[in-house]
Task: inverse folding
């Protein structure tokens, strides 16, 4: 394993959601500071247009697409389903990630001559879902065990988590000198809802038995943890209280957690620059409204002996049969517990190396483009996110260009678990103080969106004030 | 210049929002059909000849019953298309035997019955017999009504069993359940 070349790892576990490769490093957009609190700051102050400053949607599957299954192509649905079940691996997954910024803002601080520090803050709501393909469960449901004697069905194939949270954050960014900038961002998470089932273990297997044809061996250790769900689905709740409850949780009234982001930017020389960040190093402690379900135990079933109960005299076959039934119930009827639990946020890593070129003084207007004066940049970005089964990675090559004053564009080519031909495009435009940005990837897939393995979209409006321009 | 800016914005916006789709039909999901076959061990017996002695004298009929709430489970009732029970007996006692299985509903009404038997083994070598009971049509309906099974083991006439009788009776059985799951 350790000797497998990096690139092979990249291909084999390559897989992503939440990658905002277009926004990362796009310093004209204030929200890029959320990806790297130590990024470059180009404005003096800004505020996001409430609810519109950052809208992000990303969905993807590393396996079968919607089109593969539901295309109106005359092929029998069950044939397509069969192909999907047999072609996907347990590491294939489905993800969905969505973020909406409720409010945000930022401003420079420091002495009047050199305001080299920047404070930013905001509240955003995030939903994150990941479900792995439960391959062995699917095969068992598809074939049964008759044709799978001695096959070990892995109960751990069931792995999924879903969370809805809100995040209140305050970030601090300091430009130490012309070359080095760093930043940190503290976060308070408020969990609105959480379902987590990521540490499942065990197996089911049918083997040839001794007393009877088969021994059916169950070894199960499964658990689903939930918080914020039970009270919403309880019988005596109505929609009014649910909405009230959710609002309260959005504004720090849910299960709370803490976390932070760190990041830096370092200018190697006039043209080369590196930066990096870690996001969401943090946890949420779930204690309110917790309900967990677990199925745990070992049991070997070899059938029943109807006439000669094993455990000797006095016991009728019915007692004996009831014992067996109890064993099954003990194993399969889920235990409900109310123990609090902790979930860790998926840690994200971003890093990039950038080369700026094409120095140009504007002839169209007499304004400054940037201190560097470079119109273009190319670079490589690495993104990694910690996921229940294994980290997922993406590698992006990009080209960035200032088209006009107040209009920048970035094009990306990304290799990740979904595809090898993910092309993205994003722009940021300033119309007076209003900043608008729009970015989307997987452009090649837009010819048939149902066949897309992943789609990602970000857009937003900000009001930006920059002293040096205009 | 401003116009060009708007043009680019409009272009990107159109590309994103008016993306194409090819025809899909989500109603196909209603055609889903799963046909797994599950096999499970059922009953088993493995007893030496002297288990048929009570206080030194032979007992020829043994009977007991089990309550089962599996066959009348709603999932089974809805989706079980066919079942096959395989009974395999191995007899090394010099006496034949017969097993009768009676399947009763909640009100102890007989729904279905079947018997299988094994001949004696004079030289105490393995006499293996197999019986397959198939549940389809009426017998499948009977199976789905069954909540109680009565097993009666009868030792067929022959040489008297005593403490010194050698050999044993073995019964193994399994059921194959053919499901057809569709909405």
Result:
């Amino acid at each position: 394993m350790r000797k497998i070349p990096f690139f092979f790892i990249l291909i084999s576990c390559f897989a992503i959601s939440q990658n905002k490769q277009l926004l990362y490093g796009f310093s004209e957009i204030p929200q890029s500071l959320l990806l790297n609190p130590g990024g470059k700051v180009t404005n003096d102050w800004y505020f996001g247009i409430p609810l519109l400053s950052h809208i992000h949607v990303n969905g993807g599957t590393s396996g079968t697409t919607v089109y593969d299954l539901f295309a109106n192509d005359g092929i029998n649905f069950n044939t397509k389903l069969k192909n999907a079940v047999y072609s996907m691996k347990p590491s294939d997954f489905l993800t969905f990630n969505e973020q909406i910024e409720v409010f945000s803002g930022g401003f420079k601080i420091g002495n009047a001559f050199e305001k080299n520090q920047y404070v930013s803050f905001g509240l955003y709501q995030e939903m994150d879902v990941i479900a792995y393909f439960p391959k062995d469960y699917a095969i068992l449901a598809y074939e049964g065990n008759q044709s799978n004697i001695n096959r070990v069905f892995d109960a751990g194939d069931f792995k999924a988590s879903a969370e809805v949270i809100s995040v209140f954050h305050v970030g601090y960014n300091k430009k130490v000198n012309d070359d080095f900038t760093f930043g940190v961002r503290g976060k308070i998470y408020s969990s609105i809802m959480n379902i987590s089932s990521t540490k499942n273990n065990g197996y089911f297997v049918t083997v040839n038995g001794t007393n009877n044809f088969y021994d059916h061996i169950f070894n199960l250790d499964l658990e689903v943890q939930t918080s914020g769900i039970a009270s919403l689905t309880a019988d005596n709740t109505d929609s009014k209280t649910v909405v009230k409850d959710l609002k309260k949780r959005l504004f720090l009234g849910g299960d709370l957690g803490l976390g932070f982001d760190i990041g830096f930017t370092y200018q190697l020389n006039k043209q080369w620059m590196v930066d990096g960040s870690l996001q969401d190093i943090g946890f949420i402690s779930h204690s309110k409204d917790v309900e967990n379900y677990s199925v745990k135990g070992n049991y070997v079933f070899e059938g029943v002996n109807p006439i000669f109960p094993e455990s000797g005299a006095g016991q009728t076959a019915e007692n004996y049969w009831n014992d067996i039934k109890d064993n099954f119930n003990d194993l399969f009827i889920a235990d409900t517990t109310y123990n609090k639990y902790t979930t860790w946020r998926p840690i994200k890593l971003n890093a990039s190396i950038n080369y700026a070129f094409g120095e140009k003084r504007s002839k169209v207007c007499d304004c400054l483009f940037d201190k560097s004066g470079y119109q273009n940049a190319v670079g490589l970005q690495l993104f990694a996110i910690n996921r229940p089964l294994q980290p997922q990675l993406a590698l992006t090559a990009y080209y960035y260009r200032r088209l006009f004053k107040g209009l920048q564009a970035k094009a990306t080519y990304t290799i990740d678990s979904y595809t090898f031909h993910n092309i993205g495009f994003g722009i940021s435009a300033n119309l007076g103080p209003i900043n608008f940005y729009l970015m989307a990837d997987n452009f090649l897939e837009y010819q048939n969106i149902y066949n897309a393995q992943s789609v990602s979209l970000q857009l937003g409006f900000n009001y930006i004030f920059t002293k040096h321009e205009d | 210049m401003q116009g060009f800016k708007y043009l680019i914005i409009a272009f990107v916006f159109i590309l994103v929002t008016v993306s194409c789709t090819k025809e899909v039909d989500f109603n196909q999901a209603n055609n889903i059909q799963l046909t797994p076959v599950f096999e499970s061990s059922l009953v088993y017996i493995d007893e030496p000849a002297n288990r048929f002695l009570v206080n030194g004298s032979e007992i020829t009929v043994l009977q007991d019953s089990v309550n089962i709430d599996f066959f009348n489970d709603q999932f089974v009732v809805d989706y079980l298309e066919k079942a096959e029970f395989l009974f395999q007996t191995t007899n090394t006692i010099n006496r034949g035997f017969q097993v009768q299985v009676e399947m009763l509903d909640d009100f102890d009404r007989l729904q279905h019955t079947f018997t299988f038997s094994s001949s004696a083994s004079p030289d105490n070598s393995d006499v293996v017999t197999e019986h397959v009971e198939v549940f389809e049509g009426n017998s499948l309906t009977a199976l789905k009504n069954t909540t109680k099974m009565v097993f009666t083991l009868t030792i067929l006439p022959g040489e008297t069993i005593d403490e010194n009788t050698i050999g044993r009776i073995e019964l193994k059985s399994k059921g194959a359940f053919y499901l057809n799951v569709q909405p």
User: Anything to note?
Assistant: DSSP finds three helices and ten strands in chain B. The mean pLDDT of chain B is 86.
